[in-house]
Amino acid sequence: MRKTTPLASLSRREKIVLQWLVEGLRDKDIGPLLGLTARSATRLVRDICDKLNARTRTQAACMFLSDLMATINWETENR
C-alpha cells in the first residue's frame, strides 16, 4: 500500500498548477489559464507551497515530480 503524501492534500486545480510549474510557467502565464490575475496566481502558488512545506516553487515542483516517479515505480513493481 502506498503512503499518503502531502500532495494528496492538494486539489485537482492545485495539482494542475504544479504541472505548469514543472513546465516552467510563470504566475503571469498561469493566471489567465485559470481566469485569474497574475497576483491571484502568485497567491495560489504560495498556498500550494505552504501545503507542501516547500520553500520555493521549484521545490514544490520537485516534490511533485518525485511523487510522480514514486507512483510510476510502485505501479510497475505491482503489476
Name the features.
79 residues; mainly alpha
Architecture overview:
This protein has 79 residues and is mainly α. It contains four helices and no strands. Helix 1 (12-22) crosses helix 4, helix 2 crosses helix 3 and helix 3 (38-52) crosses helix 4 (57-77). The mean pLDDT is 90.
Shape: elongated
Proportion in β-strands: under 5%
State the distance separating the first and last CA atoms.
13 Å
Largest sheet: none
Q: Percent range for helical residues?
A: 55-70%
The SS-based structural class is mainly alpha
Tally of helical segments: 4
Pick out the low-confidence regions: none
The ordered string of helix (H) and strand (E) elements is HHHH
List the helices and strands and how they pair.
Blueprint: H1 12-22, H2 27-34, H3 38-52, H4 57-77
Give a brief description.
This protein has 79 residues and is an all-alpha fold.
